[in-house]
Amino acid sequence: MMGTFGSLILVLVIFLSGIFIVLYRYFTRNFKFWQKLCIPYVKPTPFVGNLKECAFQKVNIGKHLQHTYEEHSDKPYVGIFSIDKPILLTRDLDLVKDFQYFIDRVISLDEKPARVAL
User: How far is Cα 36 from Cα 25, in angstroms, rounded to an integer?
Assistant: First the structure.
């Protein structure tokens, strides 16, 4: 009886370890993106990229990006990761002259004004 329970625990541990390894590999698959392009980047954390503080709601995204922007004031641009997606944070506006032609730029605006219940 105890041998069967021990075997089940072993199978469960192996299964969960396998799932963890697959998820880890999936969420870190792009982490060499900026390095391959020789672009300076902030070292990411598995599963959250460079947004760990935001994911745990310690700081809002605006403050976090501002901190990263100011921390790398000596560079014209720096690479970061939103979970596993590479994002280029630019400081030099001359690099973005044809902004309307950029694809996959992240801009989200709520064009409707917020309604306040009285």
Answer: 18
pTM beyond 0.85, yes or no:
no
**CB 90 within 8 Å of CB 66:** no
**Which among 58, 61, 113, 51 has a CA at the least distance from the CA of 83?**
51
Sign of CA dihedral 100, 105, 111, 113: negative
- Which tens digits make up the pLDDT trace of 33-65? 999 999 999 999 999 889 888 877 888 888 888
Query: Does residue 74 fall inside a structural domain?
Result: yes
Residue 78 lies in a domain: yes
Split into its structural domains, the chain has a count of 1
- Residue 72, domain extent: 31-101
Nearest to 76 by CA among 59, 98, 93, 101: 93
Whole-number CA gyration radius for the chain: 21
